Structures are given as structure tokens and as C-alpha cells.
């Protein structure tokens, strides 16, 4: 399935422009197009509808200019985006759901697998962005981050602004760029972490107030006129591509683009080109060609060169590729390990076994299934709270007598549900933690690869300061739970501050999580011994989400 390029405004899948006036400042989202219902976290799924049974409404192809009802304008700003697969957008009257997600970017021991970084360098209007778009289209991987060097133009002072307005400021000199910011941004992206990328406005020669939130991906493309200028940046590139297009073609394209899109006039473009763009190209940019692994003459129309690049990237991705679930399923299957202390199993009382008997019974009606699941959820959530640190608190009773009590050491507790099944646990956590904030992570299984993929996330912006109760109804191989934990760690949540909470876990899943993330507490009401070749827990409860939301496939 080919990933298609969509330039959205608000932007495409994994990047979001965080606009100070317009966005909700308390939450950051990966897919801002998804509209959540009002409330603490919003309800992504109006049960019983699941994303898999909502019809697909592919988005019509974009022309490349960013358009939304919020701000319709021509592209005057730097281009940074992460691409979703086009066919994989579900549109309902209320919301859009992206159904192509990011495959695991970590291995079976929880360590990150670095993305493949392609650097594209070349003169202005040589076709760098076009080449990048074509690579993305052909790559067929669902999650690619495209970072543009334009975002890192320095902020100008008043005098420099006047110079720029007279077309006399040299934007083609290395000094025009903030290489420090560029370096840290690229480093963070390469580590899979969240970054805020400036949005550059070519009309005003300035950064916009809003930024774009971007995440590392399996492939990162970084393009710009001086991509290979800084040795530390060049070091980070796994593949260096130079787009070599004739100067007259570049000038012709630039004239058209700058007049149509960047608010310039003919005279100004020519003046800037002759005095700065051309000399800087000859002096700084053209010599960078010697760093390139591949030179692409003529740019985007050179299909052969683009296919060669794509084949190389695909083979590199395959080398790093993961059969994560399979690996996890086998990791601890034959190798019986003692359970680590981080695993907190509720005492297996007759009451707990009784509740399990209801929800494991295939004859249990949906109504009863929901009722008894809710009871069990409440117990596991209360138990989770009992694992928090408590401090002494003394109060006066209405009788004027002192009571020496306790209170939780922190009020900064946040719930994060792994959609869809984890959402069933939200109400319970809201019932026991007053005013708790709820985040959401949508992870689904890719039906072709069998691997979990990250589709959407919405987390409180300051989540790093919180203890996080991460909720999923069941854990089998642990692949999805590990993905969610990885997301939290990438948002700087401390491993010691994460508790993964489930009704039922498989022994090997528990072991995998505990081994990969030893400081994460794992809380559950039962641990089953096996998983089958479809990665279902045995004896298990079947598909919890399907039974709870009533979306079980009908048996004819
Ligand atoms: N092969 C091509 N044929 C015609 N126009 C092109 C071609 N490649 C790029 N362009 C146009 O030239 C301009 C600059 O291309 P772009 O890919 O944005 O270059 P860069 O990123 O190097 O500045 C854009 O307006 C684009 O539409
Ligand atoms: N305020 C600015 C900033 C940059 N430029 C020109 O943009 C060119 C780089 O962008 P490409 O998309 O062409 O790679 C560069 O050559 C600068 O001269 C500008 O005109 N105004």
C-alpha cells in the first residue's frame, strides 16, 4: 500500500500545528483532524462503532497547498509534514480517523530502532521537495516525516527585516540558519521524540506564532539548500541525495513560485537571485554535491533515480524490520522466568474468580459481560491506586477530634487509555480519581503484517510531570502495551511513573513488558499461561473490545 502525500492545514497525520490561540493548550495530538467529543478526553469511539467497521471515505487528493476552513491560503510557509496513507482515512460527518499508523519503532526489548534518515540537498527550486514527495509516494510505508530546512531560518531583527524587504538579505548564506535548533530538532526526531518545529513564512520573512508538533518516524526526510553544510547534521543522514537541476530551470521555477506563492515581484526575485542566490549556490551549495551518495539530475522527473532511492530505503527498512509480535510471543514462551516484582497481581480471591467466570464464559450476554467487566475494572483500578505513594495527613472530624490519615503523595495522576478496549476502563478511573485528566492512544493491528501500529494519540501537554495509569483491557504479546509505554517515554514520562493496568494478561506479555521496562508497574487481575498463534490469550476472554462494544463478527 503506497503512502500518499497529503498536505493538510491543520496538518497531516503525525504532525500538528500547535496554534497558541486556536488549539487546546492542555493536550497535544498527533492527528489533529480527529475530532473528539467534549469532556475530559473525548470519546473516540461512540460505541458500538469501531474504526474497522466505519466505511472508508478517502480524502480527495491535495494540490500541495495547505487548505482548511480555518485558514485558506497559498503555501507561503515552510513544508513540514508527516504523511498518512491516503486510502486509510475514515471520514464521518463528525470526525476523521486515520487508519494507517506507525509500526513499532522499538524492538522486543523495548529499545528504539532508529529511523532511516534521508537528506536531500540542492539549489533553490531544484525540485528537492518534489523528489521528497515522490520518494514518500513510492516508499509505501505509512509514516514518513518530512522536515524542511526552511523552518530553521533565523528570526530577523528590524534592520534585517528592512534589508529582506529590499531583497538584499542573504537567505542563501549558512549564517541565515539556526543550526543549533536544527541539530537538536533532528536529533530528537531521530530518537523518536516529539519536537515543536517552527513554521516559516516566506512572505513576512519570519516564524509564525504557531509551531508544528512532529514525531520521529520510520523514515525521516530532511530537505534544504544547505542540508549537507553542517558536519553534525551530515553525520546523522543515512542517505545523502543531491538534486542537480540546471540553473536556468531553477531560476524559471523560482520566478514563478516566488511571484505566485511568496509575495515577490519580478524585479525583486531577479535582484536577490543575481546578488545572493546564484553566488551562494556556487560558493556553498554546489560543492556539497561531493558529499552525496546519489545525485539526481533534473529532480522530480527523474523516475529512475527515485526508484533506485526507494529500493535502497526499502531494503534498509527490511533489514531493520521487525516481526515484533512473533518475537515477543516466543520470547518467554518456553523459557519460564520467575515473575519480577514489578508485576502486581490482585489476590485471586473467590470474588475475582467469580467475576472472571462471568466474563470468560462465551455464553455470557453482552449486557452481563459489560456489567461484570465494569466491576472487575473498578477493582483493578482501586488496587492500582493502592500502589501509589501515600503521605500522612491529619484532619479534624466534625466531632473536633483529630484523625491521623493518609493522602496520595501526588495529585498529578493521569489516565491514558489504549483504544479501543482501554477506553472501557476510563469511567472507572474517573470515578475514583476526581478531575483526573485522560489521554488516549489508538493502536491497531495491521491486518497484513499482524503488527501493532500507532494511529493517534492525544496526551496532556505536561504529561511528563504525571503518574500515568495506562489502561488496556487485555495484554497478549505485550506489543501494543510496549508501544504505548514507548510513546509515554518519548513524551518524557518517567518509567517509574507508569503503571500499565489490565484485566487479563498473558504470562509471556507480562514478562516481555517487565523485561523491557523493569521500572513500569504491571497491574492485573489474572495472568493466563498461553497465547495462541493468532496472539489471543488462553484460556482468555476472546476479543474484549468486540464483546464489550457488541462488534463481534456474526456467526452464520
Ligand atoms: N519536474 C518539474 N517540472 C515542473 N515544475 C517543477 C518540477 N519540479 C518542481 N517543480 C516546481 O518548481 C517549484 C520548486 O520545486 P520544489 O520541489 O519545491 O523545489 P525545492 O524544494 O528544491 O525548492 C515548485 O513550484 C514545483 O512545483
Ligand atoms: N525569507 C526568505 C527565506 C528564504 N528565501 C529563499 O528560499 C530559498 C530556500 O527555499 P527553497 O524552497 O527554494 O529551497 C533560498 O534560496 C532563499 O533565497 C527567501 O527568498 N526569503
From TrEMBL:
Composition skew (Low complexity), residue ranges: 8-17
Compartments where found: Cytoplasm; Nucleus
Enzyme class of the recorded protein, top EC level: transferase
Record domain Phosphoribosyltransferase: where: 347-551
Subunit-structure text: Interacts with RNF19B.
Annotated family: Belongs to the uridine kinase family.
Name under which the protein is recorded: Uridine kinase
Species this protein is from: Phaedon cochleariae (Mustard beetle)
